[in-house]
Amino acid sequence: MVIDGANVIASSRRRPLERLALAEEWSRRWRADLPVWVFVDYSTAMACPRDAQQVLRARCQDVTDGRPRYVVTPHRESADTYVLEHAREHDALVLSNDRFWDHEARRDGVVTLQFYLKHDDLRVYDEATWFRGGGAARVALDALC
After folding, report:
1. In sequence order, which ranges of the chain are alpha helices (DSSP H)?
2. How far apart are CA 104 and CA 88, in angstroms?
3. Which overall architecture, per CATH, does domain 2-144 show?
4. Cα end-to-end span (Å), the chain
5. Segments making up each domain of the chain, as ranges
6. CA 72, CA 82: separation in Å to the nearest integer?
């Protein structure tokens, strides 16, 4: 499971770590067998409050088995590229509301799970989007279990 952390955080600037925690918790509840990777671009990380920046740095260094792996991308590099490349290399699902229009070739073969996030309520929609052959197909979330 790949969490587009920049996209989750961008859904609101308030409480970025709590929003990421909601995404992680949902991922573990839905498919506890999948490793979780969280990608956040540098500019999004630096827009977070200072204490959240420190937590993100610490999470990037934490490689404890069973915990989500965090990556803050290099300065001026989009997390989208890392999210899509990691998902393709590992046949991972992507939790993101981004449609990745500016990365059409990279998104081919990627399945994205879109979500609703407001306050402490994160709900993933019942259908995922599978990008393939320049188009997209809807896939029932239950079919991905």
Report:
1. 5-10, 16-30, 42-47, 50-61, 79-90, 104-107
2. 13
3. 3-Layer(aba) Sandwich (3.40)
4. 12
5. 2-144
6. 10
How many CB atoms are located within 10 Å of the residue 12 CB? 12
DSSP code of 119? T
Report which residue type is found at 77.
E
Which residue, among 117, 66, 82, 74, has the nearest Cα to 4 in the 3D structure?
82
pLDDT tens per residue across all 145 residues of the chain = 999 999 999 876 568 999 999 999 999 999 999 999 999 999 999 999 999 999 999 999 999 999 999 999 999 999 999 999 999 999 999 999 999 999 988 999 999 999 999 888 899 999 999 998 878 999 999 998 7
Number of H helices, E strands in the chain: 6, 7
Q: What single letter denotes the amino acid at residue 50?
A: R
Nearest alpha-carbon partner for 4 in 110, 127, 143: 110
d(CA 137, CA 142): 15
User: Pairing state of beta strands 135-140 and 121-132?
Assistant: antiparallel
Is the overall model pTM greater than 0.85, yes or no? yes
